């Protein structure tokens, strides 16, 4: 933490950094420009549900690294990733505002979405923020419900779209392309024998959401190559597979990628998995 000059602040988990989040960030930047301030985005890791409810089944649209890259791309001056702990969750609304937003960041303006709650047991709301603002000399700007409702998007809506394989809809909600980044590991090399070599991609972050099983049109990026391809997610029914795998075939490319990091951008879901004779 570092106190900023004329800090214009917003806070939240920002999973997906979707078009609704970007609307908040644009408001942040517009307000900062009016007071020659600096934009500050305060987010948290691990996700609060992982800490408070031990939710091991929670799947997130972004890894932490992806989220930080998207927020930097969105043009935030300062990104603060605060470690979320049970102790932190017990701060009262007053303690959170006084000790974090005011003392540690130096908030002059706070931008929030409608129905924002904060502090222990989510006890604080917009009215509390306005009252605290009078005491600690900061303004509160709430983005009206109708503005975000017109965007008609939420992180939950995007997660559900991806879990149903609707990647083109998810991309529209995100305002960017959903992607997976992982390491190419050795498989059975059966694709190579059929003259269709594939890369078996292993995702390190177990909390990363994987789209529904099926075959997808994708773009693939490695250190030395970018191009179109196909990706299969599933259990390889033709081979009577048991484990869910992510397997990509890159068009017009046949080089050894074992051990390399690749990023797969999902364009469209084409069909379910099929068991071939």
What does this structure look like?
There is one protein chain. This protein has 277 residues and is of the alpha/beta class. 31% of the residues lie in helices and 27% in strands. It contains ten helices and eleven strands. The protein has a six-stranded antiparallel barrel. The chain has a five-stranded parallel β-sheet with strand order 3-2-1-4-5, sandwiched between helices. It is elongated and about 70 Å long. The N and C termini lie far apart (60 Å). The mean pLDDT is 90.
Q: Enumerate the spans where pLDDT stays under 50 for 5 or more consecutive residues.
A: none
Structural class of the secondary structure composition?
alpha/beta
Rg calc: 22 Å
Relative strand content: 25-35%
**Separate helix tally:** 10
In short:
By secondary structure, the chain is α/β, with parallel strands linked by helices.
Pick out its properties.
277 residues; 31% helix; 10 helices; 6-stranded antiparallel β-barrel; 27% strand; alpha/beta
Question: Mind sketching the topology for me?
Answer:
Blueprint: E1 7-11, H1 19-34, E2 38-45, H2 48-52, H3 64-73, E3 78-83, H4 86-89, H5 93-105, E4 107-113, H6 126-136, E5 139-143, H7 145-151, H8 155-163, H9 167-174, E6 179-185, H10 190-193, E7 199-202, E8 214-221, E9 226-234, E10 245-250, E11 261-271
Helix pairs in contact: 5-6, 8-9
């Amino acid at each position: 933490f570092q106190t900023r000059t004329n800090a214009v602040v917003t806070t939240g988990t920002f999973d997906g950094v979707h078009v609704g989040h970007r609307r908040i960030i644009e408001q942040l930047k517009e307000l900062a420009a009016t007071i020659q301030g600096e934009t500050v985005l305060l987010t948290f890791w691990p996700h609060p549900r992982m800490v408070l409810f031990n939710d091991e089944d929670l799947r997130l649209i972004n890894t932490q690294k992806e989220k930080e890259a998207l927020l930097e791309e969105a043009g935030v001056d300062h990104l603060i990733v605060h470690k979320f702990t049970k102790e932190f969750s017990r701060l009262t609304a007053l303690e959170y505002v006084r000790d974090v937003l005011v003392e540690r960041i130096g908030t002059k303006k706070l931008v929030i979405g409608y129905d924002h709650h904060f502090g222990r047991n989510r006890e604080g709301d917009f009215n509390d923020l306005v009252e605290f603002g009078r005491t600690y000399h900061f303004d509160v700007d709430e983005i009206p419900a109708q503005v975000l409702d017109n965007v008609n998007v939420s992180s939950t809506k995007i997660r559900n779209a991806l879990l149903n394989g609707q990647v083109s809809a998810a991309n529209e909600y995100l305002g960017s392309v959903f992607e997976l980044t992982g390491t190419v590991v050795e498989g059975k090399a059966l694709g190579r024998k059929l003259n269709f070599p594939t890369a078996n991609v292993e995702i390190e972050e177990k909390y990363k959401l994987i789209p529904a099983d099926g075959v997808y049109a994708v773009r693939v990026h490695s250190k030395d190559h970018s191009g179109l391809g196909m990706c299969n997610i599933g259990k390889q029914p033709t081979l009577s597979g048991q484990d869910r795998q992510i397997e990509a075939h890159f068009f017009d490319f046949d080089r050894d990628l074992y051990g390399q990091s690749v990023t797969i951008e999902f364009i469209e879901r084409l069909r379910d998995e099929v068991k071939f004779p």
